[in-house]
Design goal:
Elements: H1 35-44, H2 50-62, H3 78-81, E1 86-92, E2 99-105, E3 112-118, H4 132-142, E4 145-149, H5 161-176, E5 182-192, H6 194-205, E6 215-219, H7 231-236, H8 245-256, E7 279-285, H9 291-303, E8 308-313, H10 328-346
Parallel strand pairs: 3-4, 3-5, 5-6, 6-7, 7-8
Antiparallel strand pairs: 1-2, 2-4
């Protein structure tokens, strides 16, 4: 046991990201006057709901189900690249249940700075294992303990469930981070894509709790859900490879459910008061539909008096930092991470 977080993988109850009883699950009552119609539809098609039809193949393809690849064509694993980084599983308690987190700890005695990391996947898919290269590299190169959160997915768990899970993990890091060798007075946040959105929202979400966040390291984040207003999105998203307009529209509906949430500051951090935001690093590529979103966020942070660095990789796509040895820009981006982390820890 490590404080209130168990390092064993729990089997019961389920981790929160395994729960299937969320408010976004489609149900119908037998007392509904339309029940006969729904019963007939359930016999004609499965799943019953259109969004369930769409999300099932997305999740299967994202996991690579049915895909075979020569191991020689794969980049080296995070474990092979960073054997000095120990990886353990945390079961962090929350009101919704236990949150499965992976803890990436560099060697040496603590207390060490900590960083909460939120993986990407459009709020509807993804897990901490998918970003193990990123989190392992951050841990190894910056001597920080990274806690990577497996939060609940939409549409079964719409906004703000995933963010709430990240908040619960952040609170645990502040209150019990010493149990994993962390320094609760030196906490940063990070994430990529949808996880970058969650990480970007965290300083706003916990502002009233006076949880000190030293820095935000945001890899290609979505910061404004009115993404069609950006020229890069209109130009690149229609035929995008990593993300595209069709998927972005789906994830927005799945995660936010109602258009009134598009402007919520915890959903679109760029639309919030940023005057007390921590110093921030944004990492983007010019071939990413979200690059203008990121530029606009950097400009708003600067206007609010926040110290901002924005690394932009020329011709780089969304998520170009996810794999080792593919681009030289990846090394440059992680060098920028190291610079911002070092500066934050000196302040």
């Amino acid at each position: 046991m490590m404080g209130d977080a168990d390092t064993r993988v729990a089997t019961s109850p389920l981790f929160v990201d395994e729960r299937t009883d969320g408010p976004g699950v489609v149900r119908f009552s037998e007392s509904d006057p339309a029940a006969p119609f729904y019963r007939l539809l359930s016999k004609l098609r499965s799943p019953l709901a259109m969004r369930d039809m769409m999300i099932a193949p997305v999740r299967a393809c994202y996991r690579g189900e049915g895909v075979t690849i020569d191991p020689a064509e794969l980049p080296p694993s995070a474990a092979a690249l960073y054997p000095q980084v120990s990886v353990s599983t945390l079961a962090i308690p929350s009101d919704a249940g236990q949150i499965r987190c992976e803890c990436f700890a560099p060697p040496g005695k603590g207390p060490k700075p900590m960083m909460l990391y939120a993986h990407g996947g459009g709020f509807v898919v993804g897990r901490s294992e998918d970003t193990a290269y990123v989190t392992s590299r951050i841990a190894a190169e910056n001597d920080v303990i990274v806690v990577s959160v497996n939060y609940r997915w939409a549409p079964e768990w719409p906004f703000p469930a995933g963010l709430d899970d990240c908040v619960a993990a952040l609170r645990w890091m502040r209150e019990a981070g010493g149990d994993i060798g962390g320094d609760a007075s030196r906490i940063m946040v990070s994430g990529d894509s949808a996880g970058g959105n969650l990480a970007a929202a965290l300083p706003l979400r916990v502002h009233q709790e006076r949880i000190s966040i030293l820095a935000a390291v945001l890899f290609c984040p979505l910061t404004d859900f009115h993404f069609e207003k950006f020229q890069s999105f209109e130009r690149l998203a229609p035929t995008g490879v990593v993300i595209d307009a069709a998927f972005m529209g789906f994830l927005r509906g799945a995660y936010l459910a109602k258009s009134e949430n598009w402007r919520h500051p915890w959903a679109s951090p760029a639309l919030s008061d940023l005057s007390e935001y921590p110093q921030t690093l944004l990492i983007s590529g010019t071939a990413d539909p979200l690059v203008d979103d990121n530029r606009a966020f950097a400009e708003k942070l600067t206007a609010a008096g926040v110290e901002v660095a924005h690394f932009i990789g020329e011709a780089m796509p969304h998520g170009f930092c996810f794999f080792p040895g593919v681009f030289s820009e990846t090394d440059a981006a992680f060098a920028a991470v190291a610079g911002v982390v070092a500066k934050a820890l000196q302040s």
